[in-house]
Structures are given as C-alpha cells and as structure tokens.
C-alpha cells in the first residue's frame, strides 16, 4: 500500500470517527422524541385484550378437531390467542398432517421435530406435559401445542406477539404468514398486540403514595423509552441506579449513585411490605450475590417497578414485575432518619 492510499485511509477513518461523535449524541438527544416518554404516555400501546380468545370462523373447520381443541385449551392456559398457535401449526406441519421428515418421527434437515417443529434443545427447555402422563413427547400434539404456547409466552407473547413469533422462526416472512393464517381462522378481524415501549395501562401514578413519592416516581416514569447505557447519568440515557438517584434528586434528596451503595443505604423492608418509592434489589449482573445485589428498580405498586433493565431489553427502561426469582430484598430510603429530617426541612421552606 503506498503512502497516498495510507493517507486517504487515515482521513477516511477520521471522518467516520468524527461523524460518529456527531451522530451518537444526536441520536441520544432525539430519543425523547423518538420514543415519546412521559407519564402521560404519548406513544403508549394498549395491551388490554392481548390474551383474548377470538371466536373461530369458517376456515377453522379445516383444522383437525383434536388440534383445534388443543389450540384453544393451550391458548386459554397460557394467555395466547389460540388462532396464533393454529397459524404456527398450519405453517409448520399443516396441523401434523404433513408427511415430510421430522413431523411424526425423526427430524428435518434443520433438526426440528414434531407437529410444532421444535429443535431438541428448545424442547428440553420449554416442553410441557400437556396430558399429565409423566412424559413430554414433542411428536404428540397434546404436549407439543402447549409447549409452543409456553415458548411464545417466554418470548414476550401476548404483549409482544410479533417478536415472540419471530423468535419461533427467525423470519419476518414467517411471522406474516403465521398471522395471515391466524386472521383467516377468525374471519379476518384480528390484530396482535406489539408493545415495544410504554404500555398505557402503566401510566397511572400510585394513588396511595404521598405527593413527594409521586414526584419521585413521575420523574422515573418520564424516562421510559430512553436507552439503557451502563454508567450513564442522563438526561438522555440511564443505568439502573442512576435513574433512581436522579429521581430522588428531583425532590431535593440525595442517595448514593451505584446499586452496591444503594443496597445498604435504605432501611430494609420485609418482602410483601414494600410501598411505592421503595427500592427492590436483584442478584443480577457480574460480581453480585444475595448479600451484594447488582441490579435495582423502584416500586410503583401492584407488583411492578420502574426499572432501567439493559441495553438490549425491550423496553430498555420501562415498567416490569419485580416479583421474580432473583429478587433479593427491598429497602426504603425515606425511612432513614436523615432523609426524614430533610423531607421535613423541604416541607417547611
């Protein structure tokens, strides 16, 4: 490579880096407009009815009766519209009637088997014993169909149905084909829910909280839709502990910056006694343990928290359940004597 080429390459690389320095802040700054955060929920998605089971239409008569009943039973059990399960069953194996390899025995070229076409590792992870006979047979629709429902549920259905179907088979053409059949089976009047960000049902502030706590939660809720960036301190991106520190700071209260510092800061509260504004901690992330949790969220009530989850989570910052297996404990910063004193001082000003 001659010197002229080297110089040109260096200038090109510099230009790319400079463009990146400009583009990244612009994108981060634009996030508040792109995602429409805020407690009012400008771009929220209504998830009510996501688990509804629509009535079967004429085209559903072409589904074998035993499969149709299994789709409906699994749909009710897992909260997945039965016609989506039927759409998958149709596209995969025409409800088990296909004579291709891997439907009734063995595996196809991709290693999938059974009427709902499970790969063995996926089956091992999500298989359901549908008829309670002590066996999980991926070639038996009694087991395979509820297992498909469980797998969709794991991947976000019914509130993120298109995403869940895509995880079933990584092709958007596949997703569209499944949903085309799902519509046909209920007469065409059917639309799935795809809540990638703010759910309208989560917009209300807790009525039983004080005005101070409502202000704290309101700030955190207004950050929904923004990206998670580890180490970020806002205003365009946050991590799990910085968003909480900033929320308390908006009412004039100072708490530590990191999760490891926030855990011993507040007064420990027994599980089941948590209130809006309390902090919930999780044994999640590198270098963490039950005595040193590495992830934190803020209780808003009804078993839910506002939390900055991770950079690849959808949403990265949003309202999610906190009653999960890695929940370590709860603290109440506002129960500390020094914060109680500060609250009284602020009220007197």
TrEMBL record:
Keyword entries, A-Z: Hydrolase, Protease, Thiol protease
SUPFAM superfamilies cross-referenced by the UniProt entry: Cysteine proteinases, Lysozyme-like
Sequence ranges assigned to domain NlpC/P60 in this UniProt record: 210-334
Name of a matching Pfam family: SLT_2
An individual GO BP term: proteolysis
Gene Ontology molecular function, alphabetical: cysteine-type peptidase activity
Gene3D superfamilies: 1.10.530.10, endopeptidase domain like (from Nostoc punctiforme)
Family: Belongs to the peptidase C40 family.
Name of the protein this chain belongs to: NlpC/P60 domain-containing protein
